[in-house]
């Protein structure tokens, strides 16, 4: 990806975002409300669920904050590419952009940069507000391991996002990839409660969801200070998933763009 | 050097009735033929007009050249480079204006939009602002710093044309660029196109329904109908052969009294439209028949009687009539 094209998209997206000032402000306020909601909920939950939360330091607020922050990347990775393509199809700009000397891969990455930066900014705000106003406590955190898990999570879900983008290019509406992974991951991946709460058969289903490994790795690294060595099982599962998802995602996107060009439906929605 | 070359270009679009149909028949189903074996070339320094009624394949042809649509058969080249195999290189060489007026970001101003597309077109930062100013001045985009969503249809079209001019591309692909422009801006832009072609050696492919624009700027034209190339040549040759004269205006040096009545008696002349005052000044406007009138015989007869003509102007029927004739010819 060429840096000047990435900057062009970033500047444009910032200009568009700034043109919706109220929405920008409301999103920031929304983070504060979400934090407050989980803070008060944690007072109730901590007293009753300690057996399940013990391995994560026993603090529900810290547990759920990491869940919400990582699931933010899940949504961004899954939706950024497909959402951008869909927006540009509706706006009528997709063909105009792709008629410029810009590779499709560059377009996808550069046009999604803003979404990832915005997601990162939101996570940062979650953490800062959590530390200063809601007593978030990280116990001897292993930031290196956490960053590795986060990077793999972003690549894994972005790869699935490529498959979602392929669906949008071909089918225009109706995106089973996003629906499946978002619904299933939020329910079974351990965003709001530990996977151990689930019935045993559902815990087996949770093992095929990459978010389960992302969250487990992130929480153990940040809340229990565990390193890569003790998290190698989760790491291996996430690496394998990321590897296959990446090649499937790239293949699907290539197939879809070729098909849309063949059918003349690139700009249709 | 050929700026554009297409050889045996065909395009069929698959016709599917939805998701289930594409699952049931991934490779089958019907198809819609948009282009059929089209071959022509456009040299650098030349303006080629692409004429044809709606659905004749003009937009498909331009989209293939812009790498937005893949051809089914044949080849298309920009500056000798294949648009399918090396599309990134060909996209470096084209300035594109499609007839889609919504192809900008509504929340950004015209200038912000052009700056964004200028970056994607690799226009160097030290030239970008100047090029945007120049295009805005040429096309008289006074609202360049207003948001795109506030623009009128004509101003949106101007911005589309301005984008095509960014980066001094050697090949310009323009789909109805003067649609919605006021006559003054349209004339200025068409004159600029001539300069870009003749003096700067650009190749300009101009799809249009505007016959005045075609006459004003095109060196050659191709006529497409239902995806097939029906005619190619200089505008007066092609339009003359397919679009017979409907009115002829002449001016002679020494008119005789009642000479217009003699003109009316010539073969193929239906009626004299001009009045006696005009006839007294040696001028006559005659409506002529599509079938029985032969321009060369008419001019020879008039010149034998009155000497060399001071003026001869042939007015053709409308483009709609031309399209109708093609349709009738096909039946």
Structure write-up:
The complex is a heterodimer of chains A (269) and B (331). Chain A is 78% helix and 0% strand. With 269 residues, chain A is mostly helical. Chain A has one domain (3-263). The mean pLDDT of chain A is 87. Chain B has 331 residues and is an alpha/beta fold. Chain B folds into two domains: 2-19 and 33-241, Rossmann fold; 244-330, Alpha-Beta Plaits, CATH 3.30.70.100. In chain B, 37% of the residues lie in helices and 27% in strands. Chain B contains 13 helices and 14 strands. Chain B has helices at residues 19-24, 58-65, 87-91, 110-120, 125-138, 153-165, 183-198, 211-217, 235-242, 259-264, 276-280, 295-306, 319-330, and strands spanning 2-15, 30-43, 47-51, 73-78, 81-82, 94-97, 171-175, 203-207, 220-225, 228-233, 245-251, 269-272, 283-288, 311-316. In chain B, a hairpin with a 2-residue loop joins strand 4 and strand 5. The chains are: A mainly alpha (269), B alpha/beta (331).
Which labels suit this protein?
heterodimer; A: 269 residues; mainly alpha; B: alpha/beta; Alpha-Beta Plaits; six-stranded mixed beta sheet; four-stranded antiparallel beta sheet
């Amino acid at each position: 990806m060429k840096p000047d094209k990435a900057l062009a998209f970033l500047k444009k997206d910032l200009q568009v975002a700034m043109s919706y000032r109220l929405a920008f402000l409301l999103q920031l306020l929304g983070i504060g409300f979400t934090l407050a909601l989980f803070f008060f909920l944690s007072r109730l939950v901590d007293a009753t669920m300690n057996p399940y939360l013990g391995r994560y330091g026993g603090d529900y607020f810290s547990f759920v904050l990491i869940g919400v922050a990582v699931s933010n990347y899940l949504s961004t990775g899954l939706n950024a590419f497909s959402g951008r393509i869909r927006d540009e199809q509706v706006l009528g700009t997709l063909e105009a952009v792709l008629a410029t000397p810009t590779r499709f891969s560059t377009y996808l990455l550069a046009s999604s940069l803003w979404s990832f930066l915005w997601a990162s900014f939101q996570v940062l705000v979650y953490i800062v507000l959590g530390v200063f106003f809601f007593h978030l406590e990280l116990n001897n955190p292993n930031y290196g391991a956490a960053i590795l898990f986060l990077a793999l999570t972003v690549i894994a879900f972005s790869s699935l996002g490529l498959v979602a983008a392929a669906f949008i290019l071909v089918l225009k509406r109706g995106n089973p990839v996003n629906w499946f992974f978002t619904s299933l991951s939020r329910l079974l991946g351990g965003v709001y409660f530990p996977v151990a709460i689930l019935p045993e058969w559902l815990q087996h289903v949770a093992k095929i969801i990459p978010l389960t490994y992302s969250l487990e790795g992130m929480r153990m690294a940040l809340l229990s200070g565990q390193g890569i060595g003790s998290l190698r099982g989760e790491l291996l599962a996430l690496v394998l998933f990321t590897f296959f998802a990446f090649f499937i995602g790239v293949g699907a996107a290539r197939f879809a763009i070729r098909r849309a060009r063949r059918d003349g439906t690139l700009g249709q929605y | 050097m050929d700026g554009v070359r297409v050889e045996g270009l065909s395009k069929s679009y698959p016709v599917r009735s939805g998701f289930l149909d594409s699952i049931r028949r991934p490779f089958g189903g019907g198809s819609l033929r948009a282009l059929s074996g089209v071959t022509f070339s456009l040299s650098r320094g030349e303006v080629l007009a692409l004429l044809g009624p709606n659905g004749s394949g003009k937009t498909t042809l331009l989209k293939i050249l812009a790498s937005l649509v893949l051809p089914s058969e044949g080849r298309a080249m920009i500056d000798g480079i294949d648009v399918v195999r090396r599309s990134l290189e060909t996209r470096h060489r084209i300035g594109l204006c499609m007839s889609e007026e919504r192809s900008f970001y509504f929340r950004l101003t015209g200038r912000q939009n052009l700056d964004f597309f200028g970056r994607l077109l690799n226009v160097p930062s030290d030239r970008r602002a100047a090029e945007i100013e120049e295009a805005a001045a040429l096309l008289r985009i006074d609202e360049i710093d207003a948001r795109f969503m506030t623009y009128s249809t004509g101003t949106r079209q101007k911005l589309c044309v301005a984008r095509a001019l960014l980066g001094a591309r050697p090949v310009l692909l323009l789909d109805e660029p003067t649609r919605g422009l006021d006559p003054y801006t349209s004339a200025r832009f068409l004159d600029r196109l001539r300069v870009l072609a003749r003096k700067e050696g650009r190749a300009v492919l101009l799809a249009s329904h505007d016959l005045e624009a075609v006459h004003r700027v095109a060196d050659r034209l191709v006529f497409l109908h239902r995806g097939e190339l029906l005619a190619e040549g200089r505008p007066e040759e092609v339009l003359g052969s397919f679009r017979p004269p409907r009115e002829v205006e002449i001016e002679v040096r020494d008119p005789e009294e009642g000479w217009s009545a003699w003109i009316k008696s010539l073969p193929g002349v239906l009626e004299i439209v001009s009045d006696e005052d005009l006839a007294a000044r040696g001028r006559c406007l005659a409506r002529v028949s599509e079938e029985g009138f032969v321009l060369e015989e008419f001019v020879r007869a008039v010149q034998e009687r009155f000497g060399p003509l001071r003026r001869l102007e042939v007015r053709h029927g409308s483009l709609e009539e031309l399209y109708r004739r093609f349709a009738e010819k096909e039946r």
